[in-house]
Amino acid sequence: MRRAGRRGRQQQEDSPMENGVGQEPGTPEPPPAEGTPAPRPPRVRPRLVFHTQLAHGSPTGRIEGFTNVKELYAKIAQVFGISPTEILFCTLNTHKVDMQKLLGGQIGLEDFIFAHVRGETKEVEVTKTEDALGLTITDNGAGYAFIKRIKEGSIINRLQSVCVGDSIEAINDQTIVGCRHYEVARMLRELPRAQPFTLRLVQPKKAFDMIGQRTRSSKSPGESRVSSGKETLRLRTQGPASLEEGPSPKEEEAAQRVDDLLESYMGIRDSELASTMVEAAKESPGVAQLARDLDSVLGEFAFPQEFVAEVWAAVCHPEGGQE
């Protein structure tokens, strides 16, 4: 099976893209009145075509016309004749289980998408001898929470059968499919100490040369972004996707700091959530307003006040700290 050995490329064609990234031509407007300049024709965005493979090996497919992660998974599944629920997560420009290249809310126009699908299911018994298990959780935006990091020396790190990239399917036979990462992290934190519990995990299907990382430093440089200042396709949970310039180095650094705070306070990492919080902080005049803004759009997270204050300081006063 041939695997793409070069950075994926993006094709631009003349017809507009569906789902809001480009618009279909509308009804022609009436001609302008005599003596008035003719209106400038609307800019038609090119159709965006991305290349994709299954991470464990497959022919190369082409996908287009998606505006969020669920639609992206559906397009990939259609190309390869599988169910969208088979896809655990996607990485950009590598077929390996590399959490630094995880697909989040933005895709560079030249990025090649690798889809990691369900492999073997395994059950692991864990005894919580400490408050923290040493797991950092993220999710794929389509119903699956999975392990993004395992802290060195932690309870989970001592269980060699648990790996980065494993999807958490159930806790004590209670399915968590459809739960967000912060809900799963809360469930794990609330488990009583000294009482064994069972994790049902699904590992991504792997080719013979795929070696995943078990642990990484909590401050991995550049982890939150794959693109490097070029135009990207921004995927949104609600509303159409849009073409945007890639984040600046300062915005990347701010998002990285906020992602680190999410891990410290909540045991999750989510680069898209971090970017959303950076945007909110930049537009808020102070901590109190930021707390209200975050509560209005992200109220389900129930961020504590001290966390919001640290987010404000990390974005608006990274050198001098909170004012």
Automatic annotation (TrEMBL):
<dbReference type="Pfam" id="PF25083">
    <property type="entry name" value="GIPC1_GH1"/>
</dbReference>
<feature type="domain" description="PDZ">
    <location>
        <begin position="123"/>
        <end position="190"/>
    </location>
</feature>
<dbReference type="InterPro" id="IPR001478">
    <property type="entry name" value="PDZ"/>
</dbReference>
<dbReference type="InterPro" id="IPR017379">
    <property type="entry name" value="GIPC1/2/3"/>
</dbReference>
<feature type="compositionally biased region" description="Pro residues">
    <location>
        <begin position="27"/>
        <end position="41"/>
    </location>
</feature>
<dbReference type="Pfam" id="PF25082">
    <property type="entry name" value="GIPC1_GH2"/>
</dbReference>
<dbReference type="InterPro" id="IPR036034">
    <property type="entry name" value="PDZ_sf"/>
</dbReference>
<comment type="similarity">
    <text>Belongs to the GIPC family.</text>
</comment>
<feature type="compositionally biased region" description="Polar residues">
    <location>
        <begin position="214"/>
        <end position="230"/>
    </location>
</feature>
<dbReference type="InterPro" id="IPR055349">
    <property type="entry name" value="GH2_GIPC"/>
</dbReference>
<protein>
    <submittedName>
        <fullName>GIPC3 protein</fullName>
    </submittedName>
</protein>
<dbReference type="InterPro" id="IPR056814">
    <property type="entry name" value="GIPC1-3_GH1"/>
</dbReference>
<dbReference type="Pfam" id="PF00595">
    <property type="entry name" value="PDZ"/>
</dbReference>
<feature type="region of interest" description="Disordered">
    <location>
        <begin position="1"/>
        <end position="44"/>
    </location>
</feature>
<feature type="region of interest" description="Disordered">
    <location>
        <begin position="210"/>
        <end position="253"/>
    </location>
</feature>
